[in-house]
Task: structure prediction
Amino acid sequence: MMRRKVAAGVDKLTDIINDEVIAAGGAAEAWGNVPSAVPADDGACPICGGSGFVLLQDGTAKRCACYAEQRLLLAQKEARLQPNLRRMSFGNFDLSCYPSGIMAPGGKGQTYYQLAREAREKTIKCCQEVIKGGRPRGLLLLGQVGSGKTHLAAAAANQLLRRGKRVLFLVVPDFLDELRNSFGSEGADSQRLLDKAKRTEVLVLDDLGTHNMSDWTRSVLFSVLNYRVNEGLTTLATSNLDFAALQEQLGTRSLSRLLSLCEPCLLVSDCDIRLRGLEKA
Ligand SMILES: [Zn+2]
Result:
C-alpha cells in the first residue's frame, strides 16, 4: 500500500520535473550565489542516497534538494563546461583583485576596478535579458591572459544553465582541433557539434584567435558566426588579442560578424588574477 503511494508520487513528480526543476532552483537563488551542497560527481547525496527523492511520513515522495544540482551538473556537461569552470559565478568574481587606484591601459581614464565592475555588470545584464526571453547582443571580453575573462564567461554560462537555457561553451582552439581531427573519418559527430555551435541558444567562444589559423578553420568560424548573426542568436566571446591581431587571425569578414554579435568590453588586470587568488588563499 505504502509502496504504491510512493510509486505514484514518483511518477507524477517525474512528469513535471523536466520543466520545473531548473527554473525553481534558479528562481530561488540570488544572482551569483551558487549553493555549496553539490554532491560530488561520483558521490551519492547523504539525504536521498542518490535517488533524488525523499520519502515523507504520509507515504508520498518529494524532490530532494540535491536534484536541481544534479540536473545542473548534467546541463553543464552537455554544455561542455570543464569541471574547473562549473563553480564560477558572478558572486565569486572577485572585484578586489582589480586595483581601484590605478588607471588601466586602454581603459579611457577608467581604473582596473571600474573596468572589471563594468564588465561584470554588462555580462549580468546580458544574462538577465536572455532569461527574460530576449536575444541580446553578447559581449566580446578582451584582455590579457589571466584577466578574468573566462571566469565571467563561465559565470554567465552557469547562470543561464541554472535557468534552463541551452548553452554551449567552446574553448575555440580545442573545438577547432576536435572538428579537424574528426572530420573525414566519423563525420557525423563533428557535423553535430558544428550544428550545435551554430544553433544553440547561447554560444560562448572562449579564447578566440589563439588557434593556428588555416583557411579551413577560418571558414568554420565564419560559418558559425555568420549563421548566428543571421538568426540573431546571443553569443559571448573572450580573446587576449587586440582588434588588429583578431582581424589578422580571423579575417575581416569574421571580425565584422563577431562585432555584430558582441559588444567589445575591456577586462584587464595588473597581474594574473588567478595567481593573486592563490596568494590570498
Ligand atoms: Zn539528495
Q: What stands out?
A: The chain is about 50% helix and 10% strand.
